[in-house]
Amino acid sequence: MMIVMKATATEEDIRSVAERIEGVGARADISQGAEVTVIGAVGDLEHDQRVAELGLETLESVDHVMPILKPYRLAAAERRHGRPTVLDIGGRRIGGEHFALIAGPCTVESRDQTLEAARIVQAGGASLFRGGAYKPRTSPYSFQGLGQEGLRMLAEAKAVSGLPVVTELMDVRDLDAVIEVADVVQLGARNMQNYTLLSEVGRSGMPVLIKRGLSSTLEELLMAAEYVLKEGNENVMLCERGIRTFETAYRFTLDLMAIPVLKELTHLPVIVDPSHAAGRRDLVEPMSLAAAAAGADGIIVEVHPEPEEAICDGPQALVGEHFGAYAERVQAAAGIAGKTLSVGAAN
Ligand code: PEP
Ligand code: MN
Question: Residue 166's beta-bridge partner residues?
Answer without folding.
Answer: 130, 184
